[in-house]
Amino acid sequence: MSEKAFVMIKPDGVRRGLVGEIVSRFKKKGLRLLRGEIMEISRETARVHYGHLQDKPFFEELVDYITSGPVFAMIVEGKEAVANARSLIGPTNPAEAPPGTIRGDFGLAVEENVIHGSDSPEHARREIRLFFEK
Ligand code: IDP
């Protein structure tokens, strides 16, 4: 059974010219890129997307970061797309992400961790609606 995941290259990844390299990793893994779009996200969308973190002390900084420039939003599809995308992406903190993962290879710190990937199929559906169907 095929599944869809929402993946987003964050503004630091776009600014640093990593879109092509990162997209190619998803393709080499065997995931299909159904949509891929450069977009600016509003503070309102950022607040909804990261709503589960609104009580964290870094929430405003997170909204600043994710709206600091264009992102590259994607829908990838394939078998267990959510789990497979998360394994390509690696743990939240790049300092703890192993080499070979996207965060491990391209990031230094949790405040700029290059990429987002949905953490469940249900959240993937919600994020695809939020970013692509508004
Ligand atoms: P995830 O992105 O790996 O699913 P979450 O815990 O959902 O991790 O956090 C969402 C995003 O919030 C992270 O990707 C990162 O950009 C940011 N973040 C998480 N923890 C911190 C922190 O301690 N300081 C600053 N930003 C953080």
TrEMBL record:
Entries under PROSITE patterns matching the protein: NDPK, NDPK_LIKE
Keyword presence, Metal-binding: yes
Enzyme Commission number, as recorded: 2.7.4.6
UniProt keyword list: ATP-binding, Cytoplasm, Kinase, Magnesium, Metal-binding, Nucleotide metabolism, Nucleotide-binding, Phosphoprotein, Transferase
GO cellular component terms, A-Z: cytoplasm
Subcellular compartments: Cytoplasm
Family, per entry: Belongs to the NDK family.
Function: Major role in the synthesis of nucleoside triphosphates other than ATP. The ATP gamma phosphate is transferred to the NDP beta phosphate via a ping-pong mechanism, using a phosphorylated active-site intermediate.
Subunit and interaction comment: Homotetramer.
Protein name in the entry: Nucleoside diphosphate kinase
Gene behind this protein: ndk
